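Table S5 (text form). Sequence records supplied for joint modeling of the four-component complex.
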Amino acid sequence: MRVSPIAGSPPHAVEQALTTLGRNIRTARLRRRLSRRQLAEKVGMSRYLMADIEAGKPTTAVAAYIGTLWALGLLDDVEALAHPDQDLEGKVLEAARRPTTAPKRGRALDDDF
Amino acid sequence: MRVSPIAGSPPHAVEQALTTLGRNIRTARLRRRLSRRQLAEKVGMSRYLMADIEAGKPTTAVAAYIGTLWALGLLDDVEALAHPDQDLEGKVLEAARRPTTAPKRGRALDDDF
DNA sequence: GAATAGAGTTGTTTTAAGGCAACATAAATC
DNA sequence: GATTTATGTTGCCTTAAAACAACTCTATTC
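The corresponding structure-token record, covering 226 residues in total, follows.
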């Protein structure tokens, strides 16, 4: 498998975010008194993969992370990720663009579909 | 490559969360007037992978998702994922356990190391 | 201290992720 | 309507993700 640069050697900020996420997942698991094997089985993966997740491995499938959060009952946090209502900078950019004519291209102002 | 069940055929809630995340990323990209190719280059991946992300593909590397959020300036949301201070259920479980003697095993109450 | 269980590590095997070329289509600007 | 750009799609190739066995080192419970 080829690995994209972002996954192969992530910038520090991304690496940091993943490490923190793994540590948080570990904390949540221990609080619930679950072994890696137990949580892994609930999620549907091996204990080895659970170890990768707690280590914040960048190349691991996103569903392994999200699925783990789901099994821990922490899926709500995921729903908030990049939520349009919270994307202040995006809203500002959109608003600033409104008065002018369309700069170059793109499907104007509407959010997709 | 083998694929874990959680990634191969995720439960509906996980699939839903990924689809929503992809759609949110797409919205944020369009608001910033970036093509997939442009954003992909900023992140460090191909436009094909960016398409997978916007589709919410479960087997894609987590760093591709996190890296995209990073490039969009939306990394703050990631830091909040499974944050111990927000994990109410975890805190309750921990507190409820405190009075009793250690149920079976595990390194007691401390958050690791 | 013996037994049990969680967890780190290493090597092997399988198989699909991700890059890419090459196309097609849709939309926008001229 | 011709050109340009963004995006979908398909197939091929390389390579490593993920499972597993087989250890090891802990730490806890008896």
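Note: Residues 1-3, 45-46, 48-49, 52, 57, 59-61, 64, 104-107 of chain B lie near DNA strand C (CB under 10 Å from a C1').
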